[in-house]
Amino acid sequence: MLVRRASRWILVVLCCAMVATSDSPAAQESVRTGNPVLPGWYADPEAHVFEKRYWIYPTYSAPYDQQTFMDAFSSPDLVSWTKHARILDIASVKWAKRAVWAPSVIEKDGWYYLFFGANDIQNDGQVGGIGVARARRPEGPFEDYLGKPLIDRFHNGAQPIDQFVFRDTDGAYYIVYGGWRHCNIARLNDTFTGLVPFPDGTIFREITPQGYVEGAFMLIKDGRYYFMWSEGGWAGPNYAVAYAVGSSPFGPFTRVGKILQQDPAVATGAGHHSVIQAPGTGPWYIVYHRRPPGDSDRNHRVVCIDELRFDENGAILPVTITNTGVARRPY
Fold first, then answer.
1. Looking at the annotation, which residues are catalytic?
2. Which of 168, 273, 322, 325 is least crowded, fewest Cβ atoms below 10 Å from its Cβ?
3. Whole-angstrom Cα distance, residue 277 to residue 312?
4. What's the pLDDT tens digit per position in 186-210?
């Protein structure tokens, strides 16, 4: 009887020790996301924290005529991801036919708005550009909001693709976008059905920094506006992310330099990113796509996460791309 009781106590102590160990910071650190974090070919990821979960909204990476839908992924801890299939489909967007790209999602007044590029238009005579869909839930399904593109013309030389939507510190909402080496900023109206002219009467203001190609992203931190973009060719190994800093969303922006680029031993074509911070004062992450080493198929892109760090002066440190990813971080 004494032996049995002793054995039970030993088992209880061991179980408690295992629980304590699994909840310890060291144990949390040992569980990492790995890279890539999502199964399948995806690109242009935009990351968010919605409803106490991490979310990634990517482009489905395939030939243009097969890019007719978008999936999303959510996670409670950055490690375990749930796929939400076809949150947007061109079946609900009558004017979109192909090349559905680069989702940007924002929540406002109980609605989730998904801004997307479609049709890869090459001139003002073609139908397409940047559209808006919305849903009551972050996983959709998203339905076309306007019945037409929000931006369907080339302004200041910018192809209407690769949009990023954000809320400024004064409550105004802006869209920053553009391909073909030009980037514009425009102010959205309160209902996201149109754009508001600036005081000088213009609607689109060019803010293109040196080296810009596409993939605009704006980060506001400690009163600074970090304007980030992709440069190089998206189908090649030298795709990279660079940044500039300004005192307002309009700049002027002076290029600082590259912060994300290939490491041939790990991956090539690292670019078109977004940035999130873990809730509270947690670490910063850069979520981006890259190409497996030795793989030259331009559509073979995968989504990865690595840490983004700042120095004591607020400069972004060069990102080390890894196969291990980041530590598990429950919401």
1. 44, 214
2. 168
3. 17
4. 999 999 999 999 999 999 999 999 9
